[in-house]
Each structure stands twice: as structure tokens, then as C-alpha cells.
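Lab channel / #folding
Pinned by the channel admin:
"Please post every new chain as: sequence first, then the C-alpha cells as a reply. Keep commentary short and put observations after the output so the thread stays searchable."

First post following the new format, from NK:
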Amino acid sequence: MSFRTYAFRIGRDADLLDEDEWNAISPLLKSRIEGIKKFRKETGCSIEEARKLDPIGQAALDKYEAFTGERLGHPDQLWGVRMRDYGCLCPKCNRPFRTPRAKICAECGFELPSGLQAGSLLNNSH
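Reply from TO:
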């Protein structure tokens, strides 16, 4: 189940996806490049047009919207909404650490005790 918090990789609050949701979307993202090449070959359009009309990327955005009720502006933003890629919430500012291995909060500078890492938001979000 998704969890709404600040997503550094897209620069705003967004619903981060759990692993089941991510596993439903990631195959589409991984096949986007080949899909864009195929679409260009079939339609003769430019790279810019193909990226804008990209049917596989739109399908990935549709899945994200079905899970969260929110539509992101571009398929590339989906790479920034995987909950597992973020650290737990900072006890000082309540934003996630940028990675599970982080030791210092990039937002407020809070430093974890020596030898500790943030740990995954995925394990601490509920």
C-alpha cells in the first residue's frame, strides 16, 4: 500500500509505492526504451513526439494513478516513487532520509548516532 511523503527524486510530496505496487509498474518502465523505438519505427515520429505519446509510459502512469489516485506528469517521475529506495522518516523534520543507508538527514541536518543508518522507509512506514 502506498505511503504519502516527500519524494526527493521528484521534488514534492507524492505517494511512494510498496514492492507489490512497484512490481506491477517496473516492467513497463524497463520496457519503455524498446517501446519508444518501436513506436517511432511504426509512426515515423521524432524522439520528442514518441516520448510525449509513449504508450508504455502512459500505461505505467495509468497504473500509478490506479494505485494512488494521483497522476504524475511524466513516466520518468515513476523512478522516484519506490518506497524501498528511501530511508525512514527523520525524527526531527519528518521527511524521509534520502536513502536507507543515510546517516544524516539532507533536509534538516539531523545526524543519527554513530554506527546507525536510516533503514528503509518500506519497513517503517506503517
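NK: The beta strands are 3-7, 12-16.
TO: also worth noting, Residues 38 and 77 are 22 Å apart (CA to CA).
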